[in-house]
Design goal:
Layout (H helix, E strand, L loop, with lengths): L1 E5 L2 H11 L6 E6 L5 H9 L3 E3 L2 H5 L27 H16 L12 H9 L5
Parallel strand pairs: 1-2, 2-3
Length: about 130
């Protein structure tokens, strides 16, 4: 089974390492927003194609494109329902694309005590 991974970094690299050598699973593509050197190194090490969007990663051109499964009745993902449930598949695809197009969310700001803020600034954590 061909796999794609969203996000590499330490955890993603660990996951790709764990699957390496499996006779049934192979990571072939990765999507990462940062494209950091670490991401590029992991992709090169494992021969992953870095793609520009989550949607591009989901496209499986060799096997006919995106898939839709009913996991309650088909937990093994054997019956692709995309053609039979076209409207649902398109709606879900639009929702997913909107989610990944949205800016990343930041944690709400908090007031720090001046001494803590100064210490964090001196360490380079606060600008």
């Amino acid at each position: 089974m061909k796999l794609g991974i969203a996000g590499l970094g330490w955890w993603g690299g660990t996951l790709v390492d764990a699957v390496e050598g499996s006779p049934n699973l192979k990571f072939v593509a990765a999507y990462t927003r940062s494209r950091s050197q670490q991401d590029q190194d992991i992709a090169a090490k494992h021969h992953l194609k870095l793609v520009d969007s989550f949607e591009a990663m989901l496209a499986d051109l060799a096997r006919g494109g995106r898939k839709l499964f009913d996991l309650e009745s088909d937990p093994g993902e054997q019956r692709n329902l995309r053609k039979q449930r076209r409207e649902l598949a398109e709606s879900l695809q639009k929702e997913l694309a909107a989610y990944y197009a949205a800016p990343t969310h930041q944690a709400p700001g908090r007031e720090l005590p001046p001494d803590v803020e100064e210490k964090l600034r001196s360490l380079g954590y606060v600008k």
